[in-house]
Specification:
The complex is a heterodimer.
Chain A: H1 2-7, H2 14-18, H3 21-53, H4 61-68, H5 79-90, H6 101-132, H7 134-147, H8 152-165, H9 171-194, H10 199-207, H11 212-247, H12 256-265, H13 269-300
Chain B: E1 11-22, E2 25-37, E3 42-46, H1 53-60, E4 68-73, H2 78-83, E5 87-90, H3 102-113, H4 117-130, H5 146-159, E6 164-168, H6 176-193, E7 196-201, H7 204-210, E8 213-218, E9 223-229, H8 244-261
Parallel strand pairs in B: 3-7, 3-8, 5-6, 6-7
Antiparallel strand pairs in B: 1-2, 1-4, 8-9
Helix pairs in contact in B: 3-4, 3-5, 4-5, 7-8
The chains are: A mainly alpha, B alpha/beta.
Chain lengths: 305, 265
Protein backbone atom coordinates (compact mmCIF):
# COMPACT_ATOMS: atom_id res chain seq x y z
CA UNK A 1 0.00 0.00 0.00
CA UNK A 2 2.65 2.48 1.03
CA UNK A 3 4.86 1.77 -1.97
CA UNK A 4 1.90 2.24 -4.28
CA UNK A 5 1.20 5.62 -2.70
CA UNK A 6 4.83 6.59 -3.06
CA UNK A 7 5.12 5.83 -6.78
CA UNK A 8 1.76 7.35 -7.71
CA UNK A 9 2.56 10.24 -10.04
CA UNK A 10 1.41 13.60 -8.73
CA UNK A 11 0.40 14.87 -12.16
CA UNK A 12 1.54 14.30 -15.72
CA UNK A 13 3.39 17.62 -15.60
CA UNK A 14 5.11 17.07 -12.24
CA UNK A 15 8.40 16.09 -13.84
CA UNK A 16 8.31 18.91 -16.37
CA UNK A 17 7.58 21.58 -13.78
CA UNK A 18 10.34 20.54 -11.39
CA UNK A 19 13.11 21.92 -13.62
CA UNK A 20 13.72 25.43 -14.88
CA UNK A 21 12.53 24.88 -18.44
CA UNK A 22 8.95 23.96 -17.54
CA UNK A 23 8.05 27.04 -15.49
CA UNK A 24 9.84 29.39 -17.90
CA UNK A 25 8.00 27.84 -20.84
CA UNK A 26 4.64 28.26 -19.11
CA UNK A 27 5.32 31.95 -18.47
CA UNK A 28 6.46 32.51 -22.07
CA UNK A 29 3.38 30.73 -23.46
CA UNK A 30 1.18 32.79 -21.14
CA UNK A 31 2.79 36.04 -22.33
CA UNK A 32 2.36 35.03 -25.99
CA UNK A 33 -1.32 34.24 -25.37
CA UNK A 34 -1.83 37.68 -23.77
CA UNK A 35 0.06 39.24 -26.69
CA UNK A 36 -2.28 37.59 -29.23
CA UNK A 37 -5.38 38.79 -27.38
CA UNK A 38 -3.94 42.31 -27.19
CA UNK A 39 -3.07 42.21 -30.91
CA UNK A 40 -6.63 41.42 -31.87
CA UNK A 41 -8.06 44.03 -29.50
CA UNK A 42 -5.68 46.82 -30.54
CA UNK A 43 -5.84 46.19 -34.29
CA UNK A 44 -9.60 45.66 -34.44
CA UNK A 45 -10.65 49.37 -34.75
CA UNK A 46 -8.45 49.89 -37.84
CA UNK A 47 -9.67 46.62 -39.31
CA UNK A 48 -13.29 47.75 -38.87
CA UNK A 49 -12.41 50.99 -40.72
CA UNK A 50 -11.03 48.96 -43.60
CA UNK A 51 -14.17 46.83 -43.75
CA UNK A 52 -16.34 49.96 -43.58
CA UNK A 53 -14.46 51.64 -46.44
CA UNK A 54 -14.66 48.49 -48.55
CA UNK A 55 -18.38 48.31 -47.83
CA UNK A 56 -17.98 44.89 -46.30
CA UNK A 57 -20.50 44.15 -43.62
CA UNK A 58 -21.14 41.05 -41.55
CA UNK A 59 -17.52 39.89 -41.67
CA UNK A 60 -17.37 36.72 -39.59
CA UNK A 61 -15.43 37.01 -36.30
CA UNK A 62 -12.95 34.34 -37.35
CA UNK A 63 -12.17 36.28 -40.54
CA UNK A 64 -11.67 39.48 -38.55
CA UNK A 65 -9.28 37.79 -36.10
CA UNK A 66 -7.24 36.43 -39.00
CA UNK A 67 -7.13 39.88 -40.62
CA UNK A 68 -6.11 41.72 -37.43
CA UNK A 69 -3.20 39.30 -37.05
CA UNK A 70 -1.97 39.90 -40.60
CA UNK A 71 -2.02 43.70 -41.05
CA UNK A 72 0.93 45.23 -42.82
CA UNK A 73 1.36 48.09 -40.36
CA UNK A 74 -0.49 46.97 -37.25
CA UNK A 75 -0.71 49.00 -34.04
CA UNK A 76 0.62 45.90 -32.34
CA UNK A 77 2.11 43.21 -34.58
CA UNK A 78 1.29 39.62 -33.71
CA UNK A 79 4.02 37.37 -32.29
CA UNK A 80 4.26 35.26 -35.43
CA UNK A 81 4.67 38.39 -37.60
CA UNK A 82 7.57 39.44 -35.38
CA UNK A 83 9.00 35.93 -35.44
CA UNK A 84 8.82 35.79 -39.24
CA UNK A 85 10.42 39.25 -39.53
CA UNK A 86 13.25 38.21 -37.18
CA UNK A 87 13.78 34.98 -39.12
CA UNK A 88 13.72 36.87 -42.39
CA UNK A 89 16.20 39.51 -41.27
CA UNK A 90 18.62 37.17 -39.56
CA UNK A 91 18.73 33.84 -41.36
CA UNK A 92 17.67 35.00 -44.82
CA UNK A 93 19.94 38.04 -45.06
CA UNK A 94 23.68 38.22 -45.45
CA UNK A 95 25.35 39.33 -42.22
CA UNK A 96 27.03 42.21 -44.02
CA UNK A 97 23.75 43.55 -45.42
CA UNK A 98 22.37 46.57 -43.67
CA UNK A 99 18.99 44.88 -43.77
CA UNK A 100 20.32 42.10 -41.56
CA UNK A 101 19.37 42.36 -37.89
CA UNK A 102 22.52 40.43 -37.02
CA UNK A 103 24.56 43.22 -38.63
CA UNK A 104 22.73 45.84 -36.60
CA UNK A 105 22.93 43.77 -33.42
CA UNK A 106 26.66 43.43 -33.96
CA UNK A 107 27.04 47.20 -34.25
CA UNK A 108 25.08 47.77 -31.06
CA UNK A 109 26.84 44.94 -29.25
CA UNK A 110 30.30 46.29 -30.03
CA UNK A 111 29.55 49.67 -28.47
CA UNK A 112 27.67 47.98 -25.60
CA UNK A 113 30.66 45.85 -24.71
CA UNK A 114 33.20 48.65 -25.18
CA UNK A 115 31.10 50.92 -22.98
CA UNK A 116 30.55 48.17 -20.44
CA UNK A 117 34.26 47.43 -20.07
CA UNK A 118 35.05 51.14 -19.71
CA UNK A 119 32.15 51.61 -17.28
CA UNK A 120 33.20 48.64 -15.16
CA UNK A 121 36.82 49.84 -14.99
CA UNK A 122 35.70 53.38 -14.21
CA UNK A 123 33.29 52.08 -11.57
CA UNK A 124 35.97 49.95 -9.89
CA UNK A 125 38.44 52.86 -10.02
CA UNK A 126 35.98 55.29 -8.47
CA UNK A 127 35.04 52.76 -5.78
CA UNK A 128 38.70 52.27 -4.84
CA UNK A 129 39.18 56.03 -4.54
CA UNK A 130 35.99 56.47 -2.53
CA UNK A 131 36.81 53.64 -0.13
CA UNK A 132 40.36 54.84 0.55
CA UNK A 133 39.75 58.55 0.87
CA UNK A 134 37.26 60.22 3.17
CA UNK A 135 37.55 63.43 1.20
CA UNK A 136 36.68 61.70 -2.07
CA UNK A 137 33.90 59.78 -0.35
CA UNK A 138 32.33 63.08 0.69
CA UNK A 139 33.07 64.98 -2.53
CA UNK A 140 32.75 62.33 -5.26
CA UNK A 141 29.80 60.19 -4.16
CA UNK A 142 27.16 62.96 -4.43
CA UNK A 143 28.27 63.59 -8.04
CA UNK A 144 28.20 59.91 -8.86
CA UNK A 145 24.64 59.69 -7.57
CA UNK A 146 23.41 62.93 -9.14
CA UNK A 147 24.88 61.85 -12.51
CA UNK A 148 22.18 59.22 -12.64
CA UNK A 149 19.33 61.61 -11.94
CA UNK A 150 19.80 63.28 -15.34
CA UNK A 151 17.57 61.58 -17.95
CA UNK A 152 19.84 59.77 -20.38
CA UNK A 153 17.60 60.73 -23.31
CA UNK A 154 18.33 64.39 -22.54
CA UNK A 155 22.07 64.07 -22.17
CA UNK A 156 22.78 61.51 -24.91
CA UNK A 157 22.36 63.89 -27.91
CA UNK A 158 24.60 66.44 -26.19
CA UNK A 159 27.34 63.89 -25.59
CA UNK A 160 27.13 62.81 -29.25
CA UNK A 161 27.20 66.40 -30.54
CA UNK A 162 30.01 67.55 -28.25
CA UNK A 163 32.16 64.50 -29.00
CA UNK A 164 31.52 64.91 -32.73
CA UNK A 165 32.62 68.54 -32.45
CA UNK A 166 35.98 67.46 -31.04
CA UNK A 167 36.36 64.81 -33.71
CA UNK A 168 35.25 61.70 -31.87
CA UNK A 169 32.63 59.82 -33.82
CA UNK A 170 31.50 56.32 -34.65
CA UNK A 171 31.64 53.75 -31.90
CA UNK A 172 33.13 55.86 -29.11
CA UNK A 173 30.30 58.34 -28.41
CA UNK A 174 27.77 55.51 -28.12
CA UNK A 175 30.15 53.50 -25.94
CA UNK A 176 30.55 56.52 -23.68
CA UNK A 177 26.82 56.68 -23.10
CA UNK A 178 26.95 53.00 -22.15
CA UNK A 179 29.84 53.86 -19.84
CA UNK A 180 27.81 56.67 -18.33
CA UNK A 181 25.00 54.26 -17.47
CA UNK A 182 27.05 51.24 -16.42
CA UNK A 183 29.72 52.78 -14.16
CA UNK A 184 27.10 53.71 -11.57
CA UNK A 185 25.91 50.26 -10.43
CA UNK A 186 29.53 49.07 -10.45
CA UNK A 187 30.69 52.01 -8.32
CA UNK A 188 27.90 51.55 -5.80
CA UNK A 189 28.31 47.75 -5.69
CA UNK A 190 32.09 47.89 -5.37
CA UNK A 191 32.03 50.57 -2.64
CA UNK A 192 29.67 48.31 -0.72
CA UNK A 193 31.80 45.24 -1.49
CA UNK A 194 35.15 46.79 -0.61
CA UNK A 195 33.68 47.96 2.69
CA UNK A 196 32.05 44.64 3.52
CA UNK A 197 34.93 42.72 5.18
CA UNK A 198 34.10 42.07 8.80
CA UNK A 199 35.98 43.96 11.50
CA UNK A 200 37.60 40.73 12.64
CA UNK A 201 39.17 40.25 9.17
CA UNK A 202 40.46 43.82 9.13
CA UNK A 203 41.83 43.43 12.67
CA UNK A 204 43.57 40.26 11.51
CA UNK A 205 45.39 42.19 8.77
CA UNK A 206 46.29 44.82 11.37
CA UNK A 207 47.89 42.22 13.63
CA UNK A 208 50.12 41.27 10.68
CA UNK A 209 50.90 44.99 10.26
CA UNK A 210 49.77 44.64 6.66
CA UNK A 211 49.89 47.74 4.48
CA UNK A 212 46.77 49.35 3.03
CA UNK A 213 47.68 47.89 -0.39
CA UNK A 214 48.08 44.36 1.00
CA UNK A 215 44.77 44.68 2.82
CA UNK A 216 43.20 45.75 -0.46
CA UNK A 217 44.60 42.93 -2.62
CA UNK A 218 44.35 40.12 -0.08
CA UNK A 219 41.15 41.04 1.71
CA UNK A 220 38.97 43.81 0.27
CA UNK A 221 39.14 42.87 -3.40
CA UNK A 222 38.35 39.15 -3.02
CA UNK A 223 35.58 40.08 -0.60
CA UNK A 224 34.06 42.43 -3.19
CA UNK A 225 34.01 39.91 -6.06
CA UNK A 226 30.41 38.67 -5.51
CA UNK A 227 29.28 42.32 -5.24
CA UNK A 228 31.13 43.12 -8.46
CA UNK A 229 29.30 40.43 -10.41
CA UNK A 230 25.91 41.45 -9.05
CA UNK A 231 26.49 45.04 -10.16
CA UNK A 232 27.99 43.96 -13.50
CA UNK A 233 24.71 42.19 -14.27
CA UNK A 234 22.87 45.47 -13.80
CA UNK A 235 25.64 47.36 -15.60
CA UNK A 236 25.66 45.29 -18.78
CA UNK A 237 21.90 45.60 -19.24
CA UNK A 238 22.22 49.36 -18.69
CA UNK A 239 25.06 49.41 -21.25
CA UNK A 240 22.81 47.94 -23.91
CA UNK A 241 20.13 50.53 -23.18
CA UNK A 242 22.84 53.21 -23.39
CA UNK A 243 24.10 51.96 -26.74
CA UNK A 244 20.59 51.87 -28.21
CA UNK A 245 19.76 55.34 -26.87
CA UNK A 246 23.11 56.53 -28.23
CA UNK A 247 22.13 55.36 -31.71
CA UNK A 248 18.91 57.34 -31.78
CA UNK A 249 20.38 60.85 -32.25
CA UNK A 250 23.16 59.78 -34.63
CA UNK A 251 20.84 60.05 -37.59
CA UNK A 252 20.00 56.37 -37.56
CA UNK A 253 22.81 54.86 -39.58
CA UNK A 254 23.18 51.44 -38.08
CA UNK A 255 22.46 49.47 -34.93
CA UNK A 256 19.35 48.27 -33.14
CA UNK A 257 18.57 51.86 -32.12
CA UNK A 258 18.73 52.88 -35.77
CA UNK A 259 16.31 50.09 -36.67
CA UNK A 260 13.92 51.34 -33.99
CA UNK A 261 14.18 54.90 -35.28
CA UNK A 262 13.83 53.92 -38.97
CA UNK A 263 10.88 51.71 -38.08
CA UNK A 264 9.11 54.55 -36.34
CA UNK A 265 9.85 56.99 -39.23
CA UNK A 266 8.11 54.70 -41.69
CA UNK A 267 5.48 53.21 -39.40
CA UNK A 268 7.12 49.79 -39.68
CA UNK A 269 5.84 48.46 -36.36
CA UNK A 270 6.87 44.90 -37.23
CA UNK A 271 10.45 46.12 -37.68
CA UNK A 272 10.33 48.04 -34.39
CA UNK A 273 9.05 45.06 -32.49
CA UNK A 274 11.50 42.62 -33.99
CA UNK A 275 14.35 44.95 -33.03
CA UNK A 276 12.89 45.24 -29.53
CA UNK A 277 12.55 41.50 -29.13
CA UNK A 278 16.09 40.96 -30.35
CA UNK A 279 17.39 43.65 -28.00
CA UNK A 280 15.75 41.92 -25.06
CA UNK A 281 17.13 38.54 -26.14
CA UNK A 282 20.62 40.10 -26.36
CA UNK A 283 20.21 41.74 -22.93
CA UNK A 284 19.08 38.44 -21.42
CA UNK A 285 22.00 36.60 -22.99
CA UNK A 286 24.51 39.19 -21.77
CA UNK A 287 23.21 38.97 -18.20
CA UNK A 288 23.30 35.16 -18.43
CA UNK A 289 26.89 35.38 -19.71
CA UNK A 290 27.92 37.45 -16.67
CA UNK A 291 26.12 34.87 -14.54
CA UNK A 292 28.22 32.08 -16.06
CA UNK A 293 31.38 34.12 -15.56
CA UNK A 294 30.36 34.67 -11.94
CA UNK A 295 29.80 30.95 -11.39
CA UNK A 296 33.15 30.06 -12.92
CA UNK A 297 35.03 32.74 -10.96
CA UNK A 298 33.45 31.85 -7.62
CA UNK A 299 34.09 28.16 -8.28
CA UNK A 300 37.73 28.96 -8.92
CA UNK A 301 37.83 30.95 -5.66
CA UNK A 302 36.29 28.03 -3.76
CA UNK A 303 33.20 30.05 -2.83
CA UNK A 304 30.69 28.03 -4.87
CA UNK A 305 28.91 26.51 -1.92
CA UNK B 1 58.34 37.36 43.91
CA UNK B 2 61.81 38.54 43.16
CA UNK B 3 63.05 38.50 39.65
CA UNK B 4 66.51 39.26 38.32
CA UNK B 5 66.60 42.84 37.11
CA UNK B 6 68.03 41.78 33.74
CA UNK B 7 64.99 39.71 32.76
CA UNK B 8 62.56 41.91 30.95
CA UNK B 9 58.87 41.09 31.34
CA UNK B 10 57.04 40.29 28.08
CA UNK B 11 54.17 42.53 29.09
CA UNK B 12 54.08 45.15 31.77
CA UNK B 13 51.16 47.46 32.39
CA UNK B 14 51.19 50.31 34.87
CA UNK B 15 48.10 52.25 35.91
CA UNK B 16 46.50 51.46 32.56
CA UNK B 17 43.09 53.02 31.90
CA UNK B 18 40.80 52.93 28.90
CA UNK B 19 37.55 54.85 28.74
CA UNK B 20 35.13 54.58 25.82
CA UNK B 21 33.11 57.73 25.22
CA UNK B 22 29.57 56.69 24.35
CA UNK B 23 26.27 58.54 23.99
CA UNK B 24 25.28 57.26 27.44
CA UNK B 25 28.40 58.75 28.97
CA UNK B 26 31.89 57.34 29.51
CA UNK B 27 32.35 53.57 29.93
CA UNK B 28 35.37 52.65 32.02
CA UNK B 29 36.45 49.50 30.21
CA UNK B 30 39.81 49.32 31.99
CA UNK B 31 40.71 51.02 35.23
CA UNK B 32 44.16 51.14 36.90
CA UNK B 33 45.44 47.86 35.48
CA UNK B 34 48.76 46.74 36.99
CA UNK B 35 50.09 43.59 35.38
CA UNK B 36 53.36 41.82 34.64
CA UNK B 37 53.65 38.80 32.40
CA UNK B 38 56.98 36.98 32.16
CA UNK B 39 58.40 34.92 29.37
CA UNK B 40 57.01 31.39 29.30
CA UNK B 41 53.96 32.32 31.36
CA UNK B 42 50.53 31.05 30.42
CA UNK B 43 48.25 33.78 31.69
CA UNK B 44 44.47 33.61 31.61
CA UNK B 45 42.19 36.62 31.88
CA UNK B 46 38.90 35.46 33.35
CA UNK B 47 35.82 37.43 34.25
CA UNK B 48 32.19 38.04 33.37
CA UNK B 49 31.13 39.79 30.16
CA UNK B 50 32.03 43.46 30.13
CA UNK B 51 34.93 43.14 32.59
CA UNK B 52 37.39 44.34 29.97
CA UNK B 53 39.31 41.09 29.46
CA UNK B 54 39.08 41.22 25.68
CA UNK B 55 39.76 44.96 25.72
CA UNK B 56 42.95 44.41 27.72
CA UNK B 57 44.08 41.80 25.21
CA UNK B 58 43.30 44.19 22.34
CA UNK B 59 45.34 46.94 24.05
CA UNK B 60 48.30 44.56 24.23
CA UNK B 61 47.80 43.83 20.52
CA UNK B 62 47.51 47.55 19.64
CA UNK B 63 43.96 47.03 18.38
CA UNK B 64 42.73 49.51 21.03
CA UNK B 65 44.47 52.60 22.40
CA UNK B 66 44.64 53.14 26.18
CA UNK B 67 43.38 56.47 27.51
CA UNK B 68 46.14 56.76 30.09
CA UNK B 69 48.83 54.75 31.83
CA UNK B 70 51.77 52.79 30.49
CA UNK B 71 52.02 49.48 28.72
CA UNK B 72 55.04 47.80 27.21
CA UNK B 73 55.25 44.66 25.09
CA UNK B 74 58.79 43.25 24.94
CA UNK B 75 59.90 46.63 26.29
CA UNK B 76 58.36 48.41 23.30
CA UNK B 77 55.10 50.24 22.81
CA UNK B 78 52.30 47.94 21.62
CA UNK B 79 52.40 49.67 18.22
CA UNK B 80 56.11 48.98 17.75
CA UNK B 81 55.54 45.41 18.89
CA UNK B 82 52.74 45.02 16.35
CA UNK B 83 54.83 46.50 13.54
CA UNK B 84 57.58 44.02 14.51
CA UNK B 85 55.02 41.20 14.37
CA UNK B 86 55.89 40.30 17.94
CA UNK B 87 52.71 38.36 18.57
CA UNK B 88 50.22 35.98 16.98
CA UNK B 89 46.56 36.69 17.62
CA UNK B 90 43.75 34.14 17.69
CA UNK B 91 40.28 35.63 17.56
CA UNK B 92 36.98 34.39 19.02
CA UNK B 93 35.97 33.27 15.52
CA UNK B 94 38.35 31.46 13.14
CA UNK B 95 38.22 34.44 10.72
CA UNK B 96 39.52 32.30 7.86
CA UNK B 97 39.23 33.79 4.37
CA UNK B 98 36.63 31.70 2.51
CA UNK B 99 38.40 32.06 -0.86
CA UNK B 100 41.63 30.59 0.46
CA UNK B 101 42.28 26.94 1.22
CA UNK B 102 43.42 26.02 4.72
CA UNK B 103 47.03 26.08 3.56
CA UNK B 104 46.34 29.38 1.80
CA UNK B 105 44.97 30.84 5.01
CA UNK B 106 48.02 29.74 6.97
CA UNK B 107 50.16 31.25 4.20
CA UNK B 108 48.44 34.66 4.48
CA UNK B 109 50.65 36.18 7.21
CA UNK B 110 53.72 34.56 5.65
CA UNK B 111 53.00 36.27 2.32
CA UNK B 112 52.63 39.60 4.10
CA UNK B 113 55.91 38.98 5.93
CA UNK B 114 57.49 38.49 2.51
CA UNK B 115 58.81 34.97 3.08
CA UNK B 116 59.85 32.99 0.02
CA UNK B 117 57.82 30.04 -1.24
CA UNK B 118 60.11 27.39 0.22
CA UNK B 119 60.06 28.90 3.70
CA UNK B 120 56.28 29.29 3.46
CA UNK B 121 55.82 25.62 2.49
CA UNK B 122 57.95 24.52 5.43
CA UNK B 123 56.11 26.62 7.96
CA UNK B 124 52.71 25.59 6.63
CA UNK B 125 53.60 21.90 6.81
CA UNK B 126 55.10 22.22 10.29
CA UNK B 127 52.20 24.14 11.79
CA UNK B 128 49.47 22.11 10.11
CA UNK B 129 51.02 19.07 11.71
CA UNK B 130 51.29 20.83 15.06
CA UNK B 131 47.52 21.38 15.20
CA UNK B 132 46.74 17.94 13.75
CA UNK B 133 45.40 19.20 10.44
CA UNK B 134 47.78 17.35 8.18
CA UNK B 135 45.97 16.26 5.02
CA UNK B 136 43.49 19.14 5.08
CA UNK B 137 45.74 21.64 3.29
CA UNK B 138 43.66 21.77 0.13
CA UNK B 139 40.25 21.96 1.82
CA UNK B 140 38.29 25.17 1.99
CA UNK B 141 37.21 26.49 5.42
CA UNK B 142 33.54 25.62 4.93
CA UNK B 143 34.52 21.96 4.40
CA UNK B 144 35.89 21.79 7.97
CA UNK B 145 34.13 21.57 11.33
CA UNK B 146 34.17 24.52 13.72
CA UNK B 147 36.88 22.95 15.89
CA UNK B 148 39.08 22.26 12.87
CA UNK B 149 38.61 25.80 11.60
CA UNK B 150 39.71 27.19 14.95
CA UNK B 151 42.74 24.88 14.89
CA UNK B 152 43.56 26.20 11.42
CA UNK B 153 43.41 29.74 12.79
CA UNK B 154 45.80 28.70 15.57
CA UNK B 155 48.15 27.23 12.96
CA UNK B 156 47.94 30.56 11.11
CA UNK B 157 48.90 32.46 14.28
CA UNK B 158 51.73 30.01 15.05
CA UNK B 159 53.11 30.19 11.52
CA UNK B 160 54.25 33.74 12.26
CA UNK B 161 56.48 32.02 14.88
CA UNK B 162 55.78 34.61 17.55
CA UNK B 163 57.14 34.28 21.06
CA UNK B 164 53.87 35.73 22.31
CA UNK B 165 50.49 34.24 21.55
CA UNK B 166 47.37 36.27 22.29
CA UNK B 167 44.15 34.24 22.31
CA UNK B 168 40.72 35.76 22.69
CA UNK B 169 38.24 33.07 23.81
CA UNK B 170 39.40 30.83 20.97
CA UNK B 171 37.29 27.88 22.11
CA UNK B 172 34.26 29.85 23.29
CA UNK B 173 32.01 28.74 20.45
CA UNK B 174 32.92 25.04 20.65
CA UNK B 175 31.23 22.23 22.54
CA UNK B 176 32.66 20.79 25.76
CA UNK B 177 34.19 17.68 24.18
CA UNK B 178 36.01 19.49 21.39
CA UNK B 179 37.04 22.13 23.87
CA UNK B 180 38.63 19.59 26.25
CA UNK B 181 40.51 18.11 23.34
CA UNK B 182 41.79 21.46 22.12
CA UNK B 183 42.70 22.53 25.68
CA UNK B 184 44.85 19.44 25.94
CA UNK B 185 46.48 20.12 22.58
CA UNK B 186 47.08 23.77 23.44
CA UNK B 187 48.66 22.81 26.75
CA UNK B 188 51.03 20.36 25.07
CA UNK B 189 51.88 22.93 22.44
CA UNK B 190 52.72 25.51 25.09
CA UNK B 191 54.74 23.03 27.15
CA UNK B 192 56.68 22.02 24.03
CA UNK B 193 57.43 25.47 22.65
CA UNK B 194 57.80 27.57 25.79
CA UNK B 195 55.83 30.43 24.28
CA UNK B 196 54.22 33.13 26.35
CA UNK B 197 50.45 32.84 26.05
CA UNK B 198 47.81 35.35 27.09
CA UNK B 199 44.44 33.66 27.03
CA UNK B 200 41.00 35.18 27.49
CA UNK B 201 38.24 32.89 28.71
CA UNK B 202 35.13 32.75 30.83
CA UNK B 203 35.52 29.09 31.68
CA UNK B 204 37.00 28.41 35.12
CA UNK B 205 38.21 24.83 34.41
CA UNK B 206 39.82 26.00 31.16
CA UNK B 207 41.63 28.85 32.90
CA UNK B 208 42.85 26.70 35.79
CA UNK B 209 43.89 23.78 33.60
CA UNK B 210 45.93 25.88 31.17
CA UNK B 211 47.41 28.67 33.25
CA UNK B 212 50.45 29.36 35.33
CA UNK B 213 48.82 32.61 36.34
CA UNK B 214 45.14 33.51 36.45
CA UNK B 215 44.02 37.12 36.36
CA UNK B 216 40.47 37.58 37.66
CA UNK B 217 38.79 40.71 36.34
CA UNK B 218 35.54 42.30 37.36
CA UNK B 219 33.34 44.84 35.60
CA UNK B 220 32.20 48.45 36.03
CA UNK B 221 34.86 49.65 35.99
CA UNK B 222 36.88 46.84 34.39
CA UNK B 223 39.70 46.10 36.85
CA UNK B 224 41.88 43.32 38.19
CA UNK B 225 40.34 41.74 41.26
CA UNK B 226 42.79 38.93 41.94
CA UNK B 227 45.96 37.43 40.48
CA UNK B 228 46.43 33.74 41.26
CA UNK B 229 49.82 32.09 40.74
CA UNK B 230 49.10 28.46 40.03
CA UNK B 231 51.21 25.85 41.84
CA UNK B 232 50.09 23.03 39.55
CA UNK B 233 52.95 21.21 37.81
CA UNK B 234 53.89 22.46 34.34
CA UNK B 235 53.19 19.05 32.82
CA UNK B 236 49.49 18.28 33.21
CA UNK B 237 46.82 16.07 31.75
CA UNK B 238 43.08 16.64 31.81
CA UNK B 239 42.87 14.27 34.81
CA UNK B 240 44.41 16.96 36.99
CA UNK B 241 40.98 18.57 37.09
CA UNK B 242 39.88 15.95 39.65
CA UNK B 243 42.68 16.71 42.11
CA UNK B 244 42.23 18.78 45.32
CA UNK B 245 44.97 21.22 44.22
CA UNK B 246 43.07 21.97 41.03
CA UNK B 247 39.77 22.35 42.85
CA UNK B 248 41.36 24.67 45.38
CA UNK B 249 42.50 27.07 42.66
CA UNK B 250 39.17 26.76 40.85
CA UNK B 251 37.44 27.62 44.11
CA UNK B 252 39.56 30.74 44.58
CA UNK B 253 38.78 31.85 41.03
CA UNK B 254 35.07 31.29 41.60
CA UNK B 255 35.15 33.24 44.87
CA UNK B 256 36.95 36.06 43.08
CA UNK B 257 34.36 36.17 40.32
CA UNK B 258 31.56 36.16 42.90
CA UNK B 259 33.09 38.88 45.08
CA UNK B 260 33.89 41.08 42.10
CA UNK B 261 30.31 40.90 41.01
CA UNK B 262 28.52 41.18 44.36
CA UNK B 263 28.24 44.95 44.61
CA UNK B 264 25.76 45.43 41.80
CA UNK B 265 23.39 42.47 42.04
Amino acid sequence: MTTEAAVRPLSPFAGLMSGTIGPVLVVVLGLIAIWYVATVALNAPFQRDIYARAGQTDVPFSQMVADTLAQERPVLPSPHQVAIEIWDTTVNKKVTSNRSLIYHTGITLSSTLTGFVMGTLLGIGLAILVVHSRVLDKSLMPWVISSQTIPILAIAPMIIVVLNAIGISGLMPKAMISTYLSFFPVTVGMVKGLRSPELIHIDLMRTYSASEAETFWKLRLPYAVPYLFASMKVGIAASLVGAIVGELPTGAVAGLGARLLAGSYYGQTVQIWSALVLASVVAGSLVALIGLLEKATLAKMGMNR
Amino acid sequence: MDRPASVQPVISAKDLCLTFETNDGPVHALSNIELTIDEGDFVSFIGPSGCGKTTLLRVIADLEQPTSGKIAVNGMSPEEARLNRAYGYVFQAPALYPWRTIAGNVALPLEIMGLDAKEREERIARNMELVNLKGFEKKYPWQLSGGMQQRASIARALAVEPKLLLMDEPFGALDEIVRDHLNDQLHQLWAKTNKTVVFVTHSIPEAVYLSTKIVVLCPRPGRIYDVIESDLPRQRTLDIRETPEFLKIAHRVREGLKAGHSYDD
